[in-house]
Design brief:
homodimer; alpha+beta; Dna Ligase, domain 1; 2 domains; 3-stranded antiparallel β-sheet; 3-stranded mixed β-sheet; 5 helices; binds manganese (II) ion; binds zinc ion; DNA-binding
Amino acid sequence: MASLQTPYPAPARVPDDDAPRHTSARERIAARGGRVTRTRLAVLEMLQHGTHPLSHDEIAEALASAGIAHDRVTLYRALDWLVEQGLARRIAGGERAWRFEGVRDAGHRHAHFHCDRCGQVVCLEGLQPAPATALPSGFQVERADLVLHGQCAACGRRDEELRP
Amino acid sequence: MASLQTPYPAPARVPDDDAPRHTSARERIAARGGRVTRTRLAVLEMLQHGTHPLSHDEIAEALASAGIAHDRVTLYRALDWLVEQGLARRIAGGERAWRFEGVRDAGHRHAHFHCDRCGQVVCLEGLQPAPATALPSGFQVERADLVLHGQCAACGRRDEELRP
DNA sequence: GGGCTTGATGCAACATTGTAGCATTAGGCT
DNA sequence: AGCCTAATGCTACAATGTTGCATCAAGCCC
Ligand SMILES: [Mn+2]
Ligand SMILES: [Mn+2]
Ligand SMILES: [Zn+2]
Ligand SMILES: [Zn+2]
């Protein structure tokens, strides 16, 4: 499956009230009235420290590598719960599988880039999804999902190396 | 399954060179060197006349209603072929299933609105997906998919009727 | 620390969406 | 009308996610 590296470094982030740097995954889970289980804990820590959205499959693989026993269904349910609680966000990359990223600032939204070559999804922190202008009357917009598709920098470099 | 009505009328469209109004589905298929089969023909006609993107399932249902015998797999392949040929476009509505719409103008792109209540996807002809500004170097953007999520006008009205 | 309660897990079975292989059919051409 | 082969129909399979239910263990009270 896909590796867990990100092809470009994420920019520095400003800590916010919702999730100050020193609030541990354990505390954030407990604060929502959820039980701190090994799967939830490991997944939330992974998402908090991750720089790009991860698929269920990638997370499962990482858990396995870390020697954390887990069940497919439990992982689905843990991810659902994290999203419900606002601790994670679900991203549709244009494939059939969802991807998940940790939520630092509940108010902060950003666009994503999906590489159609390698399947990586990277966060475009600087790019806000367009606001809901010129919408037919009666429509209420909850959120905007903007996904750019194309070729990532890593795939571009790989191309150049192959034909110099 | 979902009905085939659209909750708001599509604006008038200007015919273009790629697909002048008088070019029949039959002619467009043949022009690409494809064989004109009943499934391709019916699907392309449906997409050309439709005002919002349809899922495989909705198309299958419409074919069945029209008494056009078809196979699940054949329909998948017909849709793939139409997309390859530039006659249809695939839209990720944020669910697991793709949706398809006819392509009138190959150059024209627009955003979509996905109603999280009823699942309908409607075209926002006036809203262009944001261009690729402020992208990390080395990234090449092919296209932008912008999907607004929220509640459509029909669902809003239904709400008001229930609690007046 | 020991027991209770119930939220969370693990497992099996199922649903949906889409693909692959391959024999058969039928579209278009002569 | 007959031929060639693109397209179909069928079966089997893969990937992703969901549901039901018995069992386990996290957190709480003592
Ligand atoms: Mn992101
Ligand atoms: Mn559209
Ligand atoms: Zn790439
Ligand atoms: Zn709706």
